[in-house]
Amino acid sequence: MPTYLWLIIVTVVFGVFEWLFTAKDNVSARGWAIAGLSFIIGLGILGLFLVQSRQSETSLRVVGYSSKLFDSDLVKWNLTVQRNSPPDALKEGYKRMSADISAFKLFLIEKGIPEKEINIQPITSFPQNDNYGNLTSYSLNQSVFILSPDIKKIEELALNPEFFADRGMIMQNSNLAYLYSKLPELKKQLLSEATKDAVARAGEISSSAGTKLGKMKEARAGVFQITEPYSTDVADYGYYNTSTRSKSISVTLTAVFKLK
């Protein structure tokens, strides 16, 4: 509410209070004073409502949008190697598992995968029981993941289980996750483009309405949706699909502009 309006209301209220106390012996005067005070307060509330309504009408809210297709430049191959060991040969089972992983690591290096890209996790073991609760064996598992920019080579290795079949090894949970190393820079680019789109949309709307567009006074970016190309998948907290090499990224930006 404008300052001058507040000053008028305060002056009138003080005047009414002065009248109220000086006319305390006059019941009729006091009644009129209370009615007048209520009227002034009502006018103040109405004035505040009208001013706020006018302020909301002098702004324009638009949503800008930007999207882009891109290809991943990294792949992460996750897999778990498993072997079963009799309860009385657990130590030997650990040795065989270590030998399996060492052979697999050497195989990857021979195929041109740098050793620094190969990550091996500790062995875990799980007891296996029959229907009567008797221990029958141990399941030994060891996880490995390879993070590499050579997507084609990793795809060829991941899709060919011959190495494991020849050695009697069980490969579980093998999957490829496609990533992008320059994602932060790409997000900045999309936010810039979404902002420009919001400005363009606001300009078109204000021009069509015969008003002049002022400065942007508020902007709020939405979450990024990274999906397979032409997908309609979205999530409230963002979406990141790593199952495909080619991807689509999109973002919205809500902006509020002043209107002159």
The number of helical segments is: 6
Percent helix among the residues? 40-55%
Largest sheet entry: 5 strands, mixed
Q: Give the N-to-C terminal Cα separation.
A: 19 Å
Q: In terms of per-residue confidence, which ranges show pLDDT below 50 for 5 or more consecutive residues?
A: none
Radius of gyration: 36 Å
Look at the helices and sheets and give the structural class.
alpha+beta
Mean pLDDT: 85
CATH topology of the largest domain: Alpha-Beta Plaits
Could you spell the SSE succession in H and E letters?
HHEEHEEHHEHEEEE
Strand content: 25-35%
Shape: elongated
In the CATH hierarchy, the architecture of the largest domain is: 2-Layer Sandwich
Q: How many structural units, i.e. domains?
A: 3
